[in-house]
Amino acid sequence: MRFSSRLVSTTLVAAMIALPVIAQTLRPDRAIRYRQGVLTAMNWHFGVLGSMVKGDRPYDKDVALRSATFVDQLAKMPWDGFLPGTDKGAPTKARPEVFTNTADFKSHQDKLIAETPKLVAAANTGDPTALRTAVIDVDKACKSCHDDYREK
Ligand code: ASC
Q1: Is the pLDDT of residue 3 over 70?
Q2: CA 102/CA 80 separation, integer angstroms
């Protein structure tokens, strides 16, 4: 079988470019900072909803819907960063059980992901009381996982 030298060199160059990207992605410190970044963004937008529900800022349907949509999308994302071997590598409050009780940790993720669409639905109604109920339910999902899997 013959390969053109152009094809071989193109493939090699592509591999040389791609491999460092893959290696960086799998570095534990990057995985830790990735998941913390997503959780921080989620905290920001959940905080927008929380402050509206508490009356610390005026209720605004569009602002609520925007932050609820972000929370719903972000809720799917942190879990990619809880890779095996990322219990250390950068400062982290993830408890060791995250990496041993993986089925239970996953069930907490699934619970959150099941709750956050209700935030979007509630924000869409334009009813602050509906939003309040959904915020309380999502807050419970956050808290129950933190209680078991986040260092104090
Ligand atoms: C947040 C946030 C949490 C939850 C917490 C649940 O905004 O960062 O961890 O809500 O209140 O107990």
Answers
A1: no
A2: 13
